[in-house]
Design a protein that fits this description.
Blueprint lengths: L6 E2 L1 E5 L6 H4 L1 E2 L8 H11 L20 H16 L3 E13 L2 E11 L3 E2 L8 E2 L9 H8 L4 E2 L4 E4 L8 H5 L6 E6 L6 E7 L3 H13 L5 E5 L1 H15 L4 H6 L4 E8 L7 E2 L1 E6 L3 H13 L4 E4 L7 E5 L2 E8 L7 H13 L5 E6 L1 H9 L3 E4 L8 H8 L8 E2 L7 E2 L3 E2 L13
Parallel strand pairs: 6-7, 7-12, 9-13
Antiparallel strand pairs: 1-5, 2-4, 3-22, 4-5, 4-11, 5-13, 8-23, 9-12, 10-11, 14-21, 15-19, 15-20, 16-18, 17-18, 17-20
Helix pairs in contact: 4-7, 9-10
Length: 422
């Protein structure tokens, strides 16, 4: 039984053989939020073909309101009947080719009872970044009446001995191949194999649990999606009998588990772009904010910089003197949150890729360019200090994020198997 490790085998739904998988799979909804042209290109590529685009809500379109949600729910019902007709029970071993190499993962159902995004949590699965509570209700409205979920959540396992995923990959030739295709718009190549044997995971998970020190999985991507799944489960849980709570599919969420020590897993920085902000005034206000807390903002050379202000006036590298934490975002993000609250005319977006951030800065935004964090410090940082400031790191570039591909039922139906029964 894998329940003690917060995992379960699950029925996983995949498109039928007639489906063009390149058109089906689209990147995580929280990417390219300031680049609506990307999503227009996705629309052009998918056309009228079956596509995950029709059952997700890209954040670039959130200002269009909730009308799309009813359309998503109708399309889910149609796809469940007519498109997602390949069904396997268990797990999916994933090989994703990205710029840094072949990144391996394992798609599994994770127990939302063993995940808590609250600061101070000691749960087996924990958030790695601060959760913005106001971002959860709009996502709840999407999920609470949905028939299906399609995951872009990625969890990290601290597995330096490579005991969990890598042995499965070494034996992949003996596993049924589920998909093998090129992802659209520079997403690389992806292959997936069916893993039916839960017993093969028990030994490696027991080993990981011994060294976990209470933290088995850390959320690498999709923190707000997993938080939404938990909120929907908590909203439902009290209406269920004890037996129903054990087997109801809404208790579980699909996620891809990746080894933190995978050499193809690269942590990239997430830059800030502020719109409607005067760069000189923003910098001056930040200096005053730091001074009130016993710190100082200093100009410096690029080699000493903790971050760089970028805009039409050129680069201005800077560092914070007196900062106890090596991560500049521990000061910068709280300041930005306060500053934006008192400047309603301004807004912020979180940008993957320095080139994209510089392009926005050249077009009038105030860019704040940040360095990448050392991924090997992540688990200990979360154990000691809880979640990091939101958007501290990115697992690869935007087009290397998880693409929606597999699906799972989350609304109970008569006769349907439920995650957690395996």
């Amino acid at each position: 039984m894998l329940k003690q490790y917060a995992l379960a085998a699950s029925e996983i739904l995949l498109p039928n053989e007639r489906c063009d998988m390149t058109k089906w799979a689209v990147v995580a909804c929280d990417q390219f939020t300031a680049q609506r042209d990307y999503w227009r290109r996705v629309q052009e590529i998918t056309g009228s073909a079956p596509s995950a685009l029709n059952v997700i809500f890209p954040e670039a379109w959130l200002n269009e309101g909730d009308a799309r949600i009813a359309q998503i729910n109708r399309m889910m019902t149609d796809y469940e009947k007519n498109v997602l007709t390949r069904r396997v029970n268990g797990f999916v071993l994933v090989e994703r080719t990205v710029a840094s190499g072949k990144r391996l993962g394992l798609v599994a159902a994770v127990d939302l009872e063993m995940y808590d995004y609250a600061r101070g949590s000691t749960s087996l699965i924990r958030a790695t970044e601060g959760t913005i509570l106001e971002r959860i209700p709009p996502r709840v409205r999407i999920r609470e009446h949905a028939a299906l979920e399609l995951p872009h959540i990625m969890l990290l396992a601290d597995d330096p001995e490579r005991t969990l995923i890598e042995p499965l990959y070494a034996a992949r030739d003996g596993l049924p191949l589920l998909y093998d295709f090129e992802l659209m718009l520079g997403g690389g190549h992806v292959r997936g194999w069916h893993v039916a044997d839960s017993a093969a995971l028990e030994g490696p998970l027991a080993t990981l649990m011994k060294r976990a020190d209470g933290l088995l999985f850390a959320v690498g991507d999709g923190n707000h999606s997993l938080a939404t799944a938990r909120r929907c489960w908590l909203n439902l849980r009290d209406s269920l009998s004890p037996q129903e709570r054990e087997t109801h599919p809404a208790r579980w969420a699909l996620a891809e588990i990746i080894n933190l020590h995978d050499p193809a897993l690269v942590f990239e920085p997430i830059h800030r772009a502020l719109f409607g902000a005067d760069p000189g005034m923003l910098r001056q206000d930040f200096a005053s904010w730091l001074a009130a807390r016993g710190m100082a903002l200093r100009d410096c050379g690029p080699e000493e910089a903790m971050f760089t202000f970028a805009g039409c006036g050129g680069d201005r590298p800077a560092r914070i003197e007196g900062l106890a934490n090596p991560l500049p975002l521990t000061a910068l993000q709280p300041f930005l949150d306060e500053w934006l609250a008192s400047h309603p005319e301004a807004s912020i977006d979180y940008i993957h890729g320095e080139e994209a951030a510089r392009a926005l800065a050249a077009d009038g935004a105030t860019g704040i360019l940040l360095p990448a964090m050392d991924k090997h410090t992540l688990f200990e940082s979360v154990r000691r200090g809880g979640p990091l400031p939101r958007k501290t790191f990115s697992m690869g570039e935007a087009n290397e994020k998880r693409y929606y591909l597999e699906a799972r039922r989350i609304r109970i139906r008569p006769g349907a198997p439920a995650a957690g029964e395996a």
